Amino acid sequence: MSELQAGWMLSLVLGARHALEPDHVAAVTTLITTERGRPAALGMWWGVGHALALFLVATALSLLQRQLSTEWEDRCELLVAAMLIVLGVRAVYLVWAAVREGGQGRLHFHAHGDANHAHSGPVWHVHIGGLTLSQRPLVVGLVHGLAGSGALTALVSAKMPGMWDRLAYVSLFGIGSMLGMGALAGLLGWPLSRWLVARPVAGQLLTVLAGVMSIGLGVLWSVPIVDRLLVGR
Fold first, then answer.
1. Which end of the chain is more exposed for a tag (fewer CB within 10 A), N or C?
2. How far is residue 132's CA from residue 167's CA, in Å, rounded to a whole number?
3. 116: left (phi over 0), alpha (psi -120 to 50) or beta
4. Backbone phi and psi for residue 199, each to the nearest 5 degrees, phi listed first
């Protein structure tokens, strides 16, 4: 195995490890506790968005032979911090709304082809044949990918000899993140979902806890970023 091939294999492992960073785990935890669907699938859709953002930004920077400025990296990270706060507030609000409605939340009506369908809880998903596309995890993953793309592209540009090698590394890194988050979400969400179905009050408490932790992490993360941006001006 050549040094280049070993680097590609390492990128898969590093991508899986990258999925375990606190902001990623906080975001996906709030999604697991508030979204309908299989936890592993939610994690995988987050990974798809994350990988897509990494690849698109890395491709653009490689073609332009540019690096993302520190200021823009801070802005992308501030967007992630804001998203964590929004996800946390949403999780707490959904529990409050469910308690107010006296159940699992207000029924939503939407169409699956020619048939109408009603369910309680979040509504933001679409159906493609037999596939349910969870749009919210996809968008959350896209935002997270934007925040990490600049640093990753700079690192890969210094290590890899050519543009195609760099893009292969970024793509494998993204695939590793997708697999890592899918596995983590599945391992965490599968037993929780089974246990909490019979204990709705415990599920609501867990959702509130996940939301509060997401809000706290977003606030703590945003303070130094805002300070850097204001000083930079």
1. C
2. 29
3. beta
4. -135, 70
Instruction: Say how far residue 198 (Cα) sits from the centre of its chain.
Output: 28
Give tens-digit pLDDT for 137-191.
Answer: 888 888 888 887 766 766 666 566 677 877 888 888 888 888 988 888 888 777 7
Using CA atoms, how far apart are residues 218 and 28, in angstroms rounded to an integer? 14
Could you identify the residue written with the tokens 């909490």? 196
The single residue listed with the structure tokens 């983590």 is 184
Q: Which residues pair with 119 in a beta bridge?
A: 108
User: Nearest 10 degrees: CA dihedral of 69, 75, 76, 81?
Assistant: 150
| Domain positions in the chain | 3-232
Radius of gyration of the chain (CA): 19
What is the C-alpha to C-alpha distance for residues 13 and 180, in angstroms, rounded to an integer?
9
Per the CB < 8 A criterion, the answer to whether 178 and 90 are in contact is no
Is 0.85 surpassed by the pTM of this model? no
